[in-house]
Amino acid sequence: xxxxxxxxxxxxxxxxxxxxxxxxxxxxxxxxxxxxxxxxxxxxxxxxxxxxxxxxxxxxxxxxxxxxxxxxxxxxxxxxxxxxxxxxxxxxxxxxxxxxxxxxxxxxxxxxxxxxxxxxxxxxxxxxxxxxxxxxxxxxxxxxxxxxxxxxxxxxxxxxxxxxxxxxxxxxxxxxxxxxxxxxxxxxxxxxxxxxxxxxxxxxxxxxxxxxxxxxxxxxxxxxxxxxxxxxxxxxxxxxxxxxxxxxxxxxxxxxxxxxxxxxxxxx
Length: 268
Hints:
The protein is an alpha/beta fold. It has one domain: 3-Layer(aba) Sandwich (Rossmann fold), CATH 3.40.50.720. It is built from 9 helices and 9 strands. It has a 7-stranded parallel beta sheet, sandwiched between helices. α1 links the parallel β1 (12-16) and β2 (36-41). α2 (53-67) packs parallel to α3. It is globular.
């Protein structure tokens, strides 16, 4: 499939969850290429709650009023609670699904009509390799990211003929506050926000359907299909695949957990 080229120099890029982490690095990466970047976040320049259609609509309207178009939408906002599935409060589960899935739906339903009308545009949904790899201690987060991967693939196919592309970017563990209190390394592929930002920016040129970060994780689908479950479980045990359940420093993670809880309370 061939899509109309988007020149990053002067392109209008809207980024959700752009106040820190992957979103902030992505904003800086696009700006360095000459793009006009508009950032929305709960505590960003444009106040944005992606779970609210009205809030998202206000953000989109502000971008269109200021720049007249949106060339690239990066749906980056996300939350990642950790802990045993049976212990997770319903309110936290609802917020996880609302931010990580409904946020994508809201963004695409508000921006895609504009892009389709222009016959050009690119949407990046920041998913996760947790959208393909089940991880103990992340059950509902896993569910949200599996949903994000499927949603992105289906919307991409549905509107492929319009000149608008939709890409899922799937990072492994990222050194941001989402992973605070979790021991990284020891066999777990780990990247920096700048690595993910680079992949997001690069996707504007390639328009690939799915972009794992790091790239070698593209082999996961083949491994998952070919390797027996008992061998996969052994591999996970050797690299500490249950660390999100057993090795979380809750004191280091407290500020992030409190932020999720506050958002869940406001969503109730």
